[in-house]
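Quick one, tokens below:
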């Protein structure tokens, strides 16, 4: 077995999805020499399964309080818009914008009207009430008020492809089960990382100054491999519904009291049909349901919240996905990005896609400034496997009914 000399990256990032790829770009811009290791496909896990809404915090003020989450997230729509318009780095010219805004609407329930937008005056982006003739087709028959909220919705798969294309030469695929060994001096103090190329058995040894885990739910296993507790992470499961067929493009939340009863985002599937991703409270309720039970429940919820919709000839499927976050005492969503530093290992979760830029900036500020030389690219053997970009769950063999 041949061992390749150290490729000399000063930072090694595990996990090539939204958090890892954005961080890779941020660190290169800060003069570091990072290398990113991906175990599966880029974006696999939460990002390609997500709804892509770049929240500005309104969802977090529904209890009438300006929570820490809302404070952290309120600048995000404008920051992302600048990146999408190539006015700020990373320039995301190839990331598809599904919509520049979302709709918000009430049902007629008292709880729904009461409490909505309690602390909206503190938000940067505020809901704009629509007149009946400004309503989108799916909400024409809705009995409550309808608003527009200028939170962009992006297509997460194109985001991943866009970010990955910027630094293709710094992203490699690894085999975590059989081709990864950490050499540690003590828990969380990594002296070397050895990678084995599954095709050639060639070994690559890396001796980074800092190791960063941005592997979503993979962080638990990686932490265990370097002697740290996997209990630092929690998973919160979701059971999402997708509908495709003769549906209008639509992005929005039905707000009922402090909950979003349904959240709908839409895209075009590979056959040119409109596809709705349906999440929100129904995806939480659906965790203990079968796909058939959930689809029946979602149809009732759509009828209750949107009025009569033509759902004839619509096909339905579901997929399950876990949100991976830093553990909280009560098991609820953390308020903000989460990072933990132990030894020379940083474990990170963005908590929301929208907060990925904040996470990257936060980690970059935590690292020692890089030497001011032009960054060199780590030397990776040409034939080392490179990861592909993951496809969204509805394109990977769902059971349509
Ligand atoms: C259904 C759903 C809808 C959502 N909607 C929104 C939304 O509308 N707006 C919003 O702001 N947030 C949303 N979120 C949250 C958001 O998707 C996540 O916070 C974010 O995508 C997490 O990105 P990540 O890069 O940390 O992790 P992930 O996207 O989970 O990626 C982890 C990466 O690490 C890789 N990996 C795993 N194990 C290893 C290993 N051992 N070594 C190397 N690599 C490894 C994986 O293959 C993957 O590429 C949603 C989440 C879900 C589940």
């Amino acid at each position: 077995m041949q061992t390749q000399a150290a490729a000399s990256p000063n930072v090694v990032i595990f996990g090539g999805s939204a958090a890892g790829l954005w961080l890779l770009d941020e660190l290169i811009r800060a003069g570091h020499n990072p290398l990113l290791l991906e175990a599966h496909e880029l974006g696999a896990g939460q990002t390609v399964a997500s709804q892509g809404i770049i929240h500005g915090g309104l969802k977090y003020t529904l209890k009438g309080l300006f929570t820490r989450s809302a404070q952290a997230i309120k600048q995000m729509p404008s920051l992302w818009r600048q990146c999408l318009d190539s006015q700020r780095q990373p320039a995301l010219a190839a990331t598809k914008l599904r919509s520049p805004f979302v709709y918000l609407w009430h049902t007629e329930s008292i709880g729904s009207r009461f409490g909505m937008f309690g602390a909206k005056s503190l938000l940067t982006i505020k809901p704009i009430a629509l007149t009946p003739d400004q309503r989108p087709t799916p909400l024409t028959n809705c009995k409550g008020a309808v608003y527009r909220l200028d939170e962009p919705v992006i297509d997460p798969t194109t985001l991943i492809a866009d970010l990955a294309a910027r630094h293709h030469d710094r992203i490699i695929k690894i085999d975590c089960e059989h081709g990864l060994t950490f050499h540690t001096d003590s828990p969380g103090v990594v002296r070397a990382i050895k990678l084995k190329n599954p095709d050639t058995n060639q070994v690559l040894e890396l001796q980074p100054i800092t190791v960063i885990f941005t592997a979503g739910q993979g962080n638990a296993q990686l932490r265990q491999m370097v002697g740290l507790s996997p209990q630092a992470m929690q998973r919160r499961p979701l059971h999402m519904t997708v509908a495709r067929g003769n549906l209008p493009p639509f992005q929005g939340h039905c707000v009922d009291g402090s909950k979003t009863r349904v959240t709908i985002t839409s895209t075009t599937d590979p056959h040119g049909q409109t596809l709705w991703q349906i999440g929100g409270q129904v995806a939480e309720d659906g965790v203990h349901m079968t796909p058939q039970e959930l689809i029946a429940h979602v149809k009732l919820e759509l009828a209750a919240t949107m009025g009569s919709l033509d759902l004839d000839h619509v096909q339905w499927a579901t997929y399950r996905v876990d949100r991976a976050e830093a553990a909280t005492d009560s098991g609820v969503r953390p308020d903000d990005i989460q990072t933990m530093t132990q030894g020379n290992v940083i474990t990170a979760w963005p908590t929301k896609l929208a907060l990925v830029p904040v996470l990257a900036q936060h980690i970059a500020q935590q690292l020692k400034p890089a030497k001011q030389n032009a960054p060199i690219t780590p030397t990776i053997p040409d034939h080392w496997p490179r990861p592909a970009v993951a496809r969204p769950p509805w394109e990977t063999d769902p059971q349509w009914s």
